[in-house]
Task: structure prediction
Amino acid sequence: MAKEVGGLIRKMSVANPTWGSPRIVGELAKLGILVAKATVEKYRVRPRKPPSPTWRAFLENQVKDLASVDFFVVPTVTFKVLFVFVVLTHFRRRVVHFNITEHPTAHWTAQQISEAFAWEVAPRFLIRDRDQVYGSAFKDRVEGMGIEEVLTAPRSPWQNPFIGRVIGSIRRECLDHVVVLNERHLRRLLDDYFEHYHRWRCHRSLGMDCPVPRATQQPELGKVVEVAEAGGLYRHYERRAA
Result:
């Protein structure tokens, strides 16, 4: 059994080089295999990366009432620059909305907030930076929805770490491995990634669970199989009966 688990750990670490030891421990736990982090360190191929810094007290205390927004840019093969707007709720690290545009404006961004919380309870606080795209139209829309804006200090991205980590994950696990052709291609890539992110990607801050809670699969359910997603761009592991 130990040899089989060791081989599975090595396989996971080779196939998913950005995964740290806690991520592999969480994945194994979801497959009914309980191992210590030290065991993963023993068998995995790559060394463990340094742990992430802890969140600020405000973020920890208000996590159920917080959402964050931010933009990131993606160049295409034809040298166009696409702006991706992301809305993240902190409690379960859920990306509740994203959209893409070549020309972000305050009115366009305000509409995204309305779409993000059209069917959900609006958060109490919304964390954002001081970009000029969040103009009066955006501020009026947020205020009208009863949301209080929390602005980060200039040149202080660490004050909005939740969405920064999500955007970093999108780049490392998806966009760094493909050449984006156009807006349609990027939208399909992000749709696939967020499906994987919500259903299969374990998060240390969620007790190694997923944004959509993922049940633990015990050994009696079958053998562990590796399932490729998005043409092999990323993978998940689950138990399936023979």
User: Anything to note?
Assistant: The first helix runs from residue 2 to 15. Residues 57-199 form a domain with the Nucleotidyltransferase; domain 5 fold (CATH 3.30.420.10).
